[in-house]
Structure formats: C-alpha cells, structure tokens
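Subject: Predicted fold for DNA/RNA helicase, 442 residues

User T.R. writes:
Posting the sequence so we have a shared reference for the thread.
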Amino acid sequence: MKELWGRKVLKKEITGIEGIEEHSQKLPTMKVQNEKEIQCLRCGQIHNKREVQLVSGSFFCPACIQLGRVDTSQMFYHLPEPESIKRAVYFVWEGELTKGQQEVSDKLLTSVKKAESRMIWAVTGAGKTEMLFKMIHYCLESGYRIGVASPRVDVCLELFPRIQAVFPDEEMILLHGKMEEAYRYTKLLVCTTHQLLRFRQAFDVLIIDEVDAFPFVGNSLLRYGVQQAIKYHSSLVYLTATPTKELIRQTQQKKLHTSILPARYHRRELPVPKIKWCHKWQQKIKRGNSPRELIAKIRTLVSKNDVLIFCPTISMMEQLKVVVEKQFPKAPLASVHSKDPDRLEKVMGMRNKEYRILITSTILERGVTFDGVSVIVLGANHNVFTTSALVQIAGRVDRRKEYTAGEVWFLHDGCTKGMKEAIRQIKKMNSLGIERELIDEM
Ligand SMILES: [Zn+2]
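User M.O. replies:
I've generated the structure tokens; pasting them so everyone works from the same file.
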C-alpha cells in the first residue's frame, strides 16, 4: 500500500495492488462550486458544468486530461504519508563549494529547518545543484520526503543521475510523461511539474528548478499541483537565474526569502552582451541575401570559438542556414529546433565539437552547456526574445573553468526594452559579485 502514500490517483493508475478498496482513503475527484460551475480537484481548474458534461451525466475535466481523464464517476485513492523517522543516509560528494555557494547552502538549510520557503536566484552557470546536496542530505536523515521538480523534462533527466550519484544507496525514482518504469514509493524523487498533480500532502520539501520556465510560468494548473503536493508544514524552494516579476515582487515585499548568488563558481564576470545594428536582417535573409554585419561577426567569432546563432523563428532558421552555409562552406554546420527529430543527436554533436556553427531556436536558451562557444542572437529585437530569454542565452557563454574569450552579441534593427533590461540585469549581477568579493577582476 506504500504506493498510495502521499498520492492522489485514479483506480486505473494503480492496478494490481491488493486490498486497495478496503484500506485506502477515497476522495472526490471534482467539487461542485455552484449551480453553474465545477472544480477539478486534481488540477484546480473551474469549468462551466454544461461544457464538461458527459453523455452518462458525469462531469469531467478537460484541463488535465493528458494525465488520464478525471470524471465524477471516479474517486481518488490516497493514503497519508507516514510519520518521519530519522535514519542514517550515505552521502558521497568530493566537490567543494565556493564561498558564495556555501552561503546559499547554509541559508537553505536554515530555511528548511524552519519549514520556510526560499528562492535561490543564482546566475546562469553558478552551480545550483551542488548547493542543494547538504540540505537534501539533512532532509533524508530527518526522514523527510523530498521532491525535485522542473517544468522541463530535459532538466529532470540531467538532475536525476547527478543527485543519485551523491546518494548512491538511496532509492530514487524519476517521473515524467514518457517513462515506462512503474511508480514506487521513494523518499527522494525527481519529476516534471505535471507529475505533481498526482501527489497530495506528500513533500516536506519541494524544490522547483527553472521555476520561470515554460510551461510552469503563469500556469495556474501547475501551481495548484504544487500547493496540493506539499504538506501543510513544509518548504518550497525555487531555483532560477531569471525570476519572474511576481517572484521579484514577493521578495521585495519580504513575502519570500531570497538568496542571490551573483557569481559563477569560476569567479569570472558574466559576459555582458554587446549590441550591433544589423540593417533589415529579416528582409535580407528572406531574399536569400546575407546581412553583412552578421557574416562579419560570425567570421571573427568562429576564429576563436564555436558559434551558436539564435534565430527567432523556425522558418527563418532554414533560410538563414542556406545563407550561412554559402559563406562558410568549410565550417561544419547544423540547425536545430524543438520539433527536430534529431534534436538530441545534434546537441550531442555540438558538444562533441562535430559542428563549428549551430543555428538554433530558443530551445537551447537554457539547460545546455557547450565548451568554448560564442553566441549571436540574430534579431534580438524580435518579441520571442524576452528579457529572461536573453539573459539565459547570454548565460550559455563561458560556463566552463577554462577561459576561451567567448562573446555574446545581440544583432538587431531597433533596440528593445527587453534587450536593455537583459544587459542591465547582467551588469547588476556582475557588480554585486564584485562587491561581495565573489568575482576576481580580470
Ligand atoms: Zn483537472
């Protein structure tokens, strides 16, 4: 019956467990709000009854249907989490935290001990995961249940083995939409934020990595999932390099404790984007011509590093590829976007230095590290390039220990607020890092 501890699942999700009818708690799946409306108790969304009625007369929830249909003819099966029991947990980590990381790690531990929430605002490439280890160890030894969730499955896939390596004897599970492994109870788990909808008062500590990323940001369904998944007495930990306005506001109003880590572990400043006018780039590429400024920039950058070119739309990417290939026939080149079936192979290829130039959509704005790259954002004034997207993109450069003089360039034909704000934020973090003696001046 352990499979039901802290869970909130439909019968079809838990086949093959004996004694489930007699020994589990059953909870309603939906709640009538008033004559007209009904709320789904898995995802919290409120629907007009007339729009969600089935032929049978039951009501269903269209909002979370991708997790399997919830309707009023069903019940949720649940059992409360057992009491926490202290235990010894084997922990191996040979690394060392920087002074800045250590401060954040200590603060985080203090917050968790007090069951308070905290945001960690750490610059791209700061080394966020390492700062969690000590706190996770404390939680496990206290008998707590701890979840690490991210809106992005690729982030989950990367986090899981890193955490498992540090707690080699700990049972862990990775939950996401495409997994084949059956669910089992573990004290420590990594999952996508969608999977949280299947939990109820389960976690003493819930970490949400990349809290500002799609699809979590501004998504009331996933927020409801988080609130349902944590215990009443618990800590939420938000990790981000680019907090939303809402999180910044909560910090300023002292409603949310925040630790800022303004420097990377290698103690160099974040590369500050430089801007360059690129006359009518869009029209030129559409006509199959190459914008002069772009080609000149690629030429200088590619002599020192590999080059990532961010492009605002997929159709423009294909046109740009033809243009760049013509100019650089000897440089191995690829393009990649979210719908590309060879996406993973191409990213791997870039990591393995099989390409010198990679043209990409915003999918590579976060979560990836390449050695020795420079970045060009073509059409940085396009509206897909929000402030946070630009900060994340600039953060792809100079992440490794060895310095390769990587650069970040915003090519545009009309400077936007988003571009200026991104540059301002990066500079602000750098000066904070210098002030706190976390950055060595070069
Ligand atoms: Zn729902």
